[in-house]
Amino acid sequence: MKYNYFQKKILILGMGLTGISCMNFFLKKGIEPKMIEESKNPINLNKIPKNVQYYLGNLEHPWILESDLIVISPGISSFRTILIRARLLGIEIVSDIELFSREARSPIISITGTNGKSTVATMIQKIAKNAGYHVILAGNIGVPVLDTLNQITNLYILEISSFQLENTFSLKSKVSVILNISEDHTNRYPQGFEQYKKTKLSIYNNSEICIVNLQEQSKEIIKTNKSKKWITFGTKKSDYQVCYAKKKIFLCHLNKIICNVSKTLLTGDHNYNNALVALSIADVMKLPRKKTIQTLTTFSNLPHRFQIIHTQNGIDWINDSKSTNVNSTQAALHSVKNTGTIRLLLGGDSKSANFKKLNKYLQKLKIKIYCFGKDGKHIAETLQTESVHVNTLQQAMMLIQKQVVSGDTVLLSPACSSLDQFSNFKERGEMFIKITKEIHRCT
């Protein structure tokens, strides 16, 4: 179906990377959209041509209710009162993924989940490239999807967040997967976790082949959608399994060993599961198994994802700054191999998460918590284990430097957003790396 945007009043909300890509999408079609940005000093203001009208300030602007089509950036909540009013008036509100879905002509692999999206998407990109595909990786991973429409490709791999899925309706994926769904962004969704979960599940709506985690999703999802092809992982009875035998770890399909991940560069049980999903997607796409195994055995953890950055005197320093929710921190703790004290750095913007869930888990570990950032004090008071509260990551690491001994693990896995004190999780991770290097230059 070809969509006609001419003679429509089009409004773009947000001037970040997504907003600029949407603006360029319409300008290439000869259409001049309007734009609203809540920040008074947006960094991309110099990228707005003189012929494009824009407004800087409050979202409550007459343009919203005068529009025919609103394209919303993922950082702006779909549940703002003014946007709810717009929908009631019949105004169409879509994401950049929706615009892309209407234009894309090559097969699409769609990946979402609370944790692990970037790792699995990157694994599949490397496998597909190794197999000879002209592959484009885009979406929530950093490259706006609309910027890729004019590039030559025969396969799209999209990492998609729940924020993007909120306003996506036409995405027809060849393969889609939800890696996991755990409590996150509860401050974004008025109806809480169930609304967040429902948003994630929408990725399966128009998908040809659906890959589902049976450890988290009931088999009812398969029973109620029998017209789709379902591939399962996550349990011993799934199509794809992580198998353990004689202190070795294998990726298995229908109980047959495919790959010995004990010999790969991957660290962390959660990354073995990520590799398992990558294997299942590659199989569904009929990519040569030899190329898949070759790629997985040479793949190493992405930066800021359980990244061992320094080992000395029996102490591991691990950067897991991408951990922005409680479940990802649990996965990181489960993957620590040292037998000494785990010195865990927690803190930032908790996004109203329930940190009490950690208590039962922490009681089984030899652990000391160092809390920092906006919600650091609240987190320290919530946890039923030895913890200290400081203002910054730097102060926490200076304390650790004085206390750490051989056999310990220093783990930055904050379970929080970084935006209270950093530009993003990358900047937070780089700060951890920088301080770690300074500590070891002084010893």
Automatic annotation (TrEMBL):
Residues 111-281 form the Mur ligase central domain. Keywords: ATP-binding, Cell cycle, Cell division, Cell shape, Cell wall biogenesis/degradation, Cytoplasm, Ligase, Nucleotide-binding, Peptidoglycan synthesis. Pathway: Cell wall biogenesis; peptidoglycan biosynthesis. The keyword Lyase does not apply. GO terms for molecular function: ATP binding; UDP-N-acetylmuramoylalanine-D-glutamate ligase activity. It is found in: Cytoplasm. It comes from the Bacteria. Gene3D superfamilies: Mur ligase, C-terminal domain, Mur-like, catalytic domain, NAD(P)-binding Rossmann-like Domain. Its EC number is 6.3.2.9. ATP binds at G113, T114, N115, G116, K117, S118, T119. InterPro entries: Mur-like_cat_sf, Mur_ligase_C, Mur_ligase_C_dom_sf, Mur_ligase_cen, MurD. Its main location: cytoplasm. It catalyses: UDP-N-acetyl-alpha-D-muramoyl-L-alanine + D-glutamate + ATP = UDP-N-acetyl-alpha-D-muramoyl-L-alanyl-D-glutamate + ADP + phosphate + H(+). The keyword Cell cycle applies. Belongs to the MurCDEF family. Cell wall formation. Catalyzes the addition of glutamate to the nucleotide precursor UDP-N-acetylmuramoyl-L-alanine (UMA). This is UDP-N-acetylmuramoylalanine--D-glutamate ligase. It comes from Buchnera aphidicola (Hyadaphis tataricae).
